[in-house]
Automatic annotation (TrEMBL):
PANTHER family named among the record's database cross-references: SODIUM-POTASSIUM/PROTON ANTIPORTER CHAA, SODIUM-POTASSIUM_PROTON ANTIPORTER CHAA
GO MF term (any one): potassium:proton antiporter activity
Domain Sodium/calcium exchanger membrane region: 35-187, 218-359
Compartments, record wording: Membrane
GO terms under cellular component: plasma membrane
Membrane topology summary: Multi-pass membrane protein
InterPro entries: Alkaline_pH_Ca-Antiporter, NaCa_Exmemb
Alphabetized UniProt keyword annotations: Membrane, Transmembrane, Transmembrane helix
Sequence intervals crossing the membrane: 38-58, 65-89, 101-122, 134-155, 167-185, 213-235, 247-270, 282-307, 341-360
Major location (coarse): membrane
Organism whose genome encodes this protein: Paraburkholderia diazotrophica
Pfam family, one: Na_Ca_ex
Protein name per its UniProtKB record: Ca2+:H+ antiporter
């Protein structure tokens, strides 16, 4: 008997529509406490609904295009949040893009990867994946991270984390080109490097959605993305006040933004790891980190060059050490093609150190 095509859950249709209702109320009655709370709930629901629709589209087009769709969708949310918050503020927000991109790298490489390895190892003892795909992703990630987050501290006209317009343009173009080459390798030239073995996973062989459902999800995905951007603009002042009242550094705002947009995709990666599809988990996780740098930096660079506004990219010496340690441990972890709970625990310990030092510098 032929499999029936899945249908969209009602909540994934209702969430973005209700988000727009809440958004209208928040703009009509700015500062209303109840509407601010509802806006926060609507924002979270819209993010989850958006990623669900991205998964539907991904299931329709297959792997590894599916994980690429999820990564790009999440990055569009991240870029929109960063640009909207930075443009609505003054020069004090010049480092928000840097803080958010660095947070995304740390949360992905140590948080999502660590949880996936830990949960997958607890359930399956040992898991395997394609070394060639993971190594390619890590090589690109190391290059993008170094050029975008570390080099600005050493190539500026005046010592510091800012770049001139020409240097910023070069950083943006080089990031976009390198990410584009990676996508070409992932989806065309060496697609087999990133394919998972789903032989033991029944869910991976579920009937794909119909063309009509995939098209509906594509439209609803765009509705979710726009709603997330506008709701974030409503909530950003509240988040900043909460961070300042808690006595935490302003860079914590970047961690909040990165965590918000990465949470749904992180849950999808963990589900794949528990289903013994670690390759899919790594595609999701590392793809998000690569898209975060490869798409965010060029977009923000273009906007700020056009508006002739300062942009801070270089991270601190402490964060440089954390980044170098993360890339080193990731190389060792993903260099054998097999993982256990030990590697997961190591990555989570690095995540704990990053979060602690971010809140208590």
């Amino acid at each position: 008997m032929a499999s029936t095509s899945p249908v969209l859950p009602r909540w994934t249709i209702a969430a973005p529509l209700l988000a727009w209702v809440v958004l209208g109320g928040a703009y009509a009655l700015p500062g209303n406490g109840l509407l601010v709370a509802l806006a926060a709930i609507a924002l979270g629901c819209s993010v989850f609904a958006g990623v669900h629709h991205a998964e539907v589209v991904a299931h329709r087009i297959g792997e590894p295009f599916g994980t690429l769709v999820l990564a790009v969708a999440v990055t569009v949310i991240e870029v929109a949040l960063i640009v909207s918050v930075m443009l609505s503020a003054g020069p004090e927000k010049a480092g928000l893009a840097r803080d958010t991109v660095f947070a995304a790298v740390m949360l992905v490489c140590n948080g999502i990867v660590g949880v996936c390895l830990l949960f997958g190892g607890l359930r399956h003892r040992e898991q395997g994946f394609q070394i060639r795909g993971a190594s390619a992703a890590l090589a690109v990630l190391a290059s993008l991270s170094g050029l975008s987050l570390v080099m600005p501290n050493y190539i500026s006209v005046t010592l510091g984390p800012a770049l001139t317009a020409s240097q910023l343009a070069f950083a943006g173009v080089s990031s976009l080109v390198l990410y584009g080459v990676f996508v070409f390798v992932q989806t065309v030239r060496h697609r087999d490097y990133f394919l998972a073995d789903d032989a033991g996973d029944e869910n991976a062989h579920a009937a794909p959605p119909s063309a009509r459902i995939a098209l509906t999800s594509s439209v609803l995905l765009m509705v979710c993305l726009v709603a997330v951007v506008l709701l974030a603009k409503v909530l950003s002042p509240v988040v900043e006040r909460a961070v300042l009242e808690a006595g935490a550094p302003i860079a914590v705002v970047g961690i909040v933004i990165a965590a918000l947009v990465l949470l749904p995709e992180g849950l999808a990666a963990v589900r794949a790891a528990r289903a013994n599809r670690l390759q899919t988990s790594l595609n999701l996780a590392l793809g998000s980190a690569l898209a975060s740098i490869g798409l965010t930096i060029p977009t923000v660079a273009l906007v700020f060059i056009w508006m002739n506004r300062p942009l801070t990219l270089g991270i601190t010496g402490r964060d440089t050490v954390l980044l170098a340690l993360t890339l080193l441990i990731s190389t060792l972890t993903l260099g054998t093609g097999r993982t256990t709970i030990l590697q997961g625990a190591v990555h989570l310990s690095l995540l704990a150190a990053y979060l602690f030092l971010s809140f208590v510098p």
